[in-house]
Amino acid sequence: MTRLKKDLKLILAAAILLPAAVAAADEAQLIAVLKSEASLKEKADACRELAHVATKNAVPALAAMLGDEKLSHMARYALEPIPDPSVDEALRDALGKVKGRPLVGVIGSLGVRRDAKAVPALAKLLADADADVAQAAARALGSIGTSDAAKALEGALPNAPDAHRVAFCEGLFRCAEALAAGGNAAKAQAVYDGLRALPQAPQQVRVGALRGAVLLRGKQGIPLLVEALRSADYVLFAAAARVSMEMPGAEVTAALAGELPKLPPDRQILVIKTLGHRGDASAGPALAPLAAQGPDAVRLAAIRNLTHLGYAPALPMLAELSLSGEGELASVARECLGGFPGQDADATIAAMLSHKDAKVRSLAVEMIGQRKAGKAAAHLLKAAADEEESVRLAALRALRDQAGQADLPALLAILVKARSAAEMQAAENALGALVARQSGPAQGQVVILKALYGDLPAGTSADVTAKVAAMVKDGSMAIEASNGNFGDPVPNIVKKLRVDYSVNGVVVSKTVAENESLALTAISTPPAIVEAICASMAGAPSEAKCALLRTLRSAGGPKALETVQAAMSESDARVKDAAMRALCDWPTPDALPAVGRLLGSPPNRTIKVLALRGFVRLVPQESAPDAKKLKSLQEAMSLADRDEEKRLVLSALGNIPTAEALALVVAQLDSATLREEACSAAVAIAEKIGAGHAPEVVAAMTRVAKTTADKKLAARAEAIARNAKK
Amino acid sequence: MREAPMTRRKFLKAAVQAGSVLALPVIVPAKVLGRDGAVPPSEKIVAGGIGLRGRGMGDLQWMMGNPDVQFVAICDIQKRQREAVKRFVDGQYGNQDCRMYADIRAFLAERTDIDAVLIATGDRWHALASIWAMRAGKDVYTEKPSSMTIAEGRAVVETARRYGRVYQTGTQRLSEANHVFCIEMARTGRLGKIHTAYAHIAPWDAAQMRHDWLPAAPEPPKDEVDWDAWLGPCPWRPYNPAYVSGGWRGHYDFHTSCIGEWGAHTFAQAQAGLDCGETSPVEYEYVANETGDGMVTHFASGVKMILSRGDKYWHGSCGERFDGTEGWAAAADGYSKPDVSSPALLGLYKKVIGDYVARTGRSLDHMRNFLDCVKSRQLTVANPLVMHHSMTTVHAANICMWLKRSLKFDPVKEEFIGDDEANRFRSRAMREPWTI
Question: Is the ipTM of this complex over 0.85?
Fold first, then answer.
């Protein structure tokens, strides 16, 4: 291998692997590659690298390759970016020497380099017999863009074959752009006007010529624009609409608006959209009548674009249309009203709250809910006091998403004065949502573990874990227990929703009755909110107190717990019952002592069952030694007189990893109604205590394997037993 | 190379002269004419395709799913592929009307009846085919990336303006609700003052690309595969069937690297949210790795866009994330809803999307946005200027990695500041006759 070959290999290897490294490569060595007997690939690689580093030194070697069919392109690849006039000279020189495709390439490179000295030679090539050469020359002249280049093209265009027309026009467009950019607007304008006058010009040339002619004239081009808008040629009409979008100013808006009434519906639609796109609100008066009457498609376009413009005088019409029925016009009007930009729209919609017609007021509530403007909650609170219940309920529904802490006193007042059960429920839901929002844990902290909806705790239920998780993902931190959300797994009974979830790793379990909201909180609610809710208990009607107690249960915290416990001494049986239920369902184990006391002396069987369930649920959450938890659960088991609660105790025992807990569970293996829960709990415990209690574990797992009907569970039990024996 | 049956050109000319085929863009919704929503043939957007396979076939089905589109012709340098497209199209319409072309120049020159073309060739052809099509009076929907160099992107912008053409790049996430939500949350200040955006780059390949040639194989007959046309504006190299079947990725002449593979989407997404859709970063900080992962780019406004290869900021492909003083939002493929710093932000989802639609009038269906604009002549969401600037970011980031040094860029002059070598990467001489 020659020295040159070796160097070449090294240089190109560096170039291939580390392109940046070639900046330091020796230009002379790359030039030497070009002059050598190197392969086509090696020469092509050398050209690629020279493109990035070459100086005028490389020009002769590259120029020598311009006539080579195989290397001409790569020579230009290297030549085009070299910032030295010798490149232009070399390319011009090649014009008279190379032929065919290489010539087309050389012409293109002269255009890229905008070599004005090449204009005479390129002008001659406009008449070349090779169509590719003539068309390339036209485009290159256009890129050079001098007056002489334009003149050459203008002279050649009238006699150009049909096949050349687009290329020659392209050249003239490029010239006009260059001339205009260079300050020669008069010549550029003449070029555009010449193209406009071209007989039987292709449609894109008509479009481009009109665009250039109008834009270059500025305001003086508006008559041309109007002429095109009136043209029978749809291409020119559409081009006028398009170019008007590039022309700011009220005069252009006025010109478009002025033509609007004279146009047929199809053209009206395009001009309406154009006016909307321009964003000049002075077009509003022209669009408004078209929104009010006429063909539906025109009206729809006008409605949408009045909205784009934010033309406030159209708001009453939009409101009227919104209430006009269920058709597309009404639905688009509603959509537009909800998204209409600007404070004028907020004010207009707020004013609708005082309208005599309840339908209008309801619409206003709906729109305010959608718009979520700054004072939305204040307006909704006002509407929540409306004389019409439908308006009040709509407002309370909207407040679920809108009310903030500042709205709490007003919302509490509404709840306390609720005029119907439906209103009470709506106010409670809004209050619950407010509490949840204010105390909502940060994103990513809530994980839904299990969610069931149905005849809980022991009856038929549907697993709604995925649905609840999706609702949380969508931003809901207050989950309404309703058939609307979860379907109806058990018709004709009042169902419950139970959600087991964790917040920052702390497991929480909550249950609410159908139509109540379950707030996914575990972080303390701001004290001011709890204080306000507690304060409103005083003097509130019994039903309101019940709602407040349920909300306090969701809020949690010591003050709320204290209030709930105090309410258990109220004289009203409904309030007492609500307080005891709230206590039994308390989300955190600080309620455990009180729940235990209630369990010790329940006023009735229902409360006993609820207290027992709450107790069993809270014990595993308690920060206490396993022995204490076990003792508590043993007491719970002794108090449980139904299998449903015993199953809950067994399930809770599964979380106590001690041999004593295992023994307690194993004792239930003979029960025909409890054996499966006992088997599950036993396996759960045995998996945790394992070999440390081998004899007990082996014995228990052997029994489980023989007892359970669940084959997978039996297999797990056998595996645990095997491992414990090792 | 030419259209299949010899008589077609004569047929079309005769038809055009008779006025039976010429279909100018017609905007009249059928309802205006009392046709109860039916779209008669004369009111349809007449469309053709160039280089459709894989993603392109998906685009074709998307486009043909719109009742106001009539797809009439396919142009492809590969016989098998143009026949496959014809079979599909004819099967959809229940006729034999889809015409086949091998030569793009003949296709564009002859089919003056076609309003819009769908382009899904390999990356190297996107800009040139778009420019040629627009110069021939067509509106263009082209797959990404919109260019191979900064100069190509500028030429697309100029051609679209010159001829008043409607153009959309297939960066469809710009129209998808989850991404629109994040973009609008950032753009409208709901996340506070935005200081950083993150944009996903492809987690495979590298910024450095191949310069080798695959082993030469016998070139098929031109009618089967027109290898010269396949290469188009790129440097010549010998035929190898792997290129034609998609193996062109990773080659410097044909691809825009792992940065362009997804950055062609995600930079546009990020720049839209930063309100930098019509500019490009002024500084690119080189990172000493093979991929550009972690490269920080700075806009003149002071905000940063950081290239990210992994799943740190999202869990899906083609993601973007915006960090502001009051929160963050992110989206990627496969999300049911965007990720946000606080669930309360998602309470604004419907409103933010609704406001976007009301403000722009744009469909959340990217193809529909294009077709609507073909009729209304308005700018699409992925219009030439927006795509040129986001692809300029791609190209500049690549150049930064290739030169292994940080770069400063003037987005108005579209040139690197004080770096002649970097400026030489802004364009590549195109191989004749495949030139602009």
Answer: yes
